[in-house]
Amino acid sequence: MEIIVCKDKKECGERAAARGADLIRHAIHNQGDANILLATGASQFDMLEALAAAPDIEWPVVTCFHLDEYIDISMGHPASFRRYLKERFIDRLPARVCAFHFVSGEAEPRSECRRLGQLIANHPIDAAFIGIGENGHLAFNDPPADFNTEDPYVAVHLDEACRRQQLGEGWFATLDEVPTRAISMSIRQIMKSRAIVCTVPDARKAKAVQAAVEGSVTPMLPASILRKHAQAAIFLDPDSAALLKR
What we know:
The chain contains seven helices and ten strands. Strand 9, helix 7 (206-214) and strand 10 (232-236) form a beta-alpha-beta unit. By secondary structure, it is α/β, with parallel strands linked by helices. Helix 1 crosses helix 2. The protein has a seven-stranded parallel beta sheet with strand order 1-10-9-6-2-3-5, sandwiched between helices. The protein has a three-stranded antiparallel beta sheet with strand order 4-8-7. It has a single domain, classed as Rossmann fold (3-Layer(aba) Sandwich). 30% of the residues lie in helices and 18% in strands. The radius of gyration is 17 Å and the shape is globular.
């Protein structure tokens, strides 16, 4: 795993977006199209803004997937990840993408997981844009994460630390409002991405970053699995990198 420490949060997002934009252009040049995976959350604000503004990307040949969505939440809800991506990415693009395969939180979970699994089987991900949770999760794979399931998408229960992060970021007014279930891309499916661009600014992520980078690879710290990926790059700001020994 490549580690890049930037001068501040904004540069962290901009450099991650630049790396990802190069990956998209490279995929389009080599195969005529590109498939990407997008995360949400406060850590992705600057990255998504910069990626949407990146020059010379043929967005009409790009197919997008996203990592996760709460179960039983509508796209109109302020915390909906579909709404987040529409407002913070899709609506800012200079041209429409080929397709955006949203995770529907309103669909029956098992059927939705099967539908998305069939779609992504035909669209290998060229560039995955992800983050790391305060509890070390990837997508909504909270610890202990399932490192073994081959299902591309899974229905999961959210632990309290994960739900408190959503509350702390301001997406909900009270902890009771935060959903307890979600549909999430699985760990193995994330790791099938040809390249991973992980953007993790902010001091509240420092402990998770240290454990992921310097601790054991373990389901108790899901993000630690990124060390097993040949083309994973993690972009940090000084606050998120503060506890690293090297």
